[in-house]
Amino acid sequence: MRLPNFEYIAPKTLKEASKAFALDAKGSALIAGGTDLIVNMKHRVIQPKQVINLKTIPKLASISWGKDGLRIGALATLHDIASSSIIQEKFPVLCQAAREVGAYAHQAMGTLGGNLCQGNRCRFYNQSAFWRGVKPLCYKAGGEVCHVVRKPKECHSTYCGDMTPVLIALEAQVKVVGPEKERIFPLIKLYTQDGKKPLSLRKGEILKEILLPPSSGKTLYLKWRRRDSIEFPIVSLALNLEKDENERIQKARIIFSAVGSGPVEASEAEKMLKNSFLDDQTIEKISTQAVKEISPMRTSIHSPAHKREIAGILLKEGLKKLTESH
Ligand SMILES: Cc1cc2nc3c(=O)[nH]c(=O)nc-3n(C[C@H](O)[C@H](O)[C@H](O)COP(=O)(O)OP(=O)(O)OC[C@H]3O[C@@H](n4cnc5c(N)ncnc54)[C@H](O)[C@@H]3O)c2cc1C
Ligand code: SF4
């Protein structure tokens, strides 16, 4: 499959990239590792007039540890993360999640920024132009209908990233650079939960850095997929628990991926966990509640009922694992 024609821009600084991006945000695409973008361009899902390469900008891939915690440049590859000794020491779960993305080639090329900003997926959208041509264009592709829900002007395409749930569970913040200024905000706010425009980035804004405060809790990541390689999650779960000296839970984050148009936090289940002990009854109650808080759609071959069932199984397994580990 050939790429469509486009103008190639190789900026030397982030400001330069951001200005070029802001000039024609709708007609431009940023490229980092290209493992998501190139496939979408070949499928004609995205046809930008200009492609702005972030890899030509130096110093965007550094990984460092300081008094405020960990800083990861948006251009750090998943392989850089998986093989970083400082991340292995401070946040081993991040190395594990990076190793679970696609296949090794995706990890070697794919960047953290690209992983967080990857396009939402839908079985009616992530297809070749020929395949999509059989049905009327859907709302996300510029048409009027949705082949998943019968409501016009709504898109429920699904966010399937592996790194985001873990980073949110670890309270990550992101630094973005726009044509005029920078801003820092919690990673969870990067996601709008609108399948047509899934990211809250403003005109010309580019992700520069991911910031992680030191963590005192325990975190795990569980990914359910059909094959052990080259597979987006059917459902995945990041879980972070902080307990007091009596093993009573003080703080919990329960974040799912692949069950909504962005990462989904089971906030009510988190509140129910506070001040409780992890016995079998609590685990059952929390899993039942968390499953009520997700609304997966038929955007893949897996039914919403199947995804709900898997989400419940993952959460029970995760809570049990964290009960057993001291
Ligand atoms: C077969 C296959 C399997 C895959 N499996 C998985 C999987 O299991 N788990 C998973 O999470 N992903 C998976 N992916 C998706 C993708 O490979 C990864 O998410 C990868 O990390 C994307 O990073 P990238 O640098 O290649 O992104 P790119 O393709 O370069 O960019 C992706 C998107 O993010 C935007 N972007 C990139 N960098 C920035 C930035 N700094 N600021 C703002 N926007 C930016 C781009 O404009 C583009 O829209 C898979 C892809 C394929 C093709
Ligand atoms: S959910 Fe509907 S509008 Fe969104 S990509 Fe799928 S078919 Fe298109």
Describe this structure in words.
This protein has helices at residues 14-23, 37-42, 78-82, 85-90, 92-99, 104-109, 112-117, 129-132, 163-169, 267-273, 280-292, 304-324, and strands at residues 7-9, 28-31, 50-53, 63-66, 69-73, 173-177, 182-186, 206-212, 218-224, 235-243, 249-257, 264-265. It has 326 residues and is of the alpha+beta class. The strands form three sheets. Strands 4-5-8-6-7 form a five-stranded antiparallel sheet. The structure holds flavin-adenine dinucleotide (FAD) and iron/sulfur cluster.
Describe how the helices and strands are arranged:
Elements lengths: L6 E3 L4 H10 L4 E4 L5 H6 L7 E4 L9 E4 L2 E5 L4 H5 L2 H6 L1 H8 L4 H6 L2 H6 L11 H4 L30 H7 L3 E5 L4 E5 L19 E7 L5 E7 L10 E9 L5 E9 L6 E2 L1 H7 L6 H13 L11 H21 L2
Parallel strand pairs: 1-3, 2-3
Antiparallel strand pairs: 4-5, 5-8, 6-7, 6-8, 9-10, 10-11, 11-12
Helix pairs in contact: 10-11, 11-12
The structure holds flavin-adenine dinucleotide and iron/sulfur cluster.
Please summarize what this structure is.
The protein has 326 residues and is an alpha+beta fold. The chain is built from twelve helices and twelve strands.
Estimate the strand proportion. 15-25%
Distance between the termini: 51 Å
**Mind telling me which CATH architecture of the domain at 218-324 this is?**
2-Layer Sandwich
User: Could you tell me the mean pLDDT?
Assistant: 95
Number of distinct beta strands: 12
The main β sheet shows up as: 5 strands, antiparallel
CATH superfamily of the domain at 218-324: CO dehydrogenase flavoprotein, C-terminal domain
Please write the CATH class name of the domain at 218-324: Alpha Beta
List cofactors, ions and other ligands: flavin-adenine dinucleotide, iron/sulfur cluster
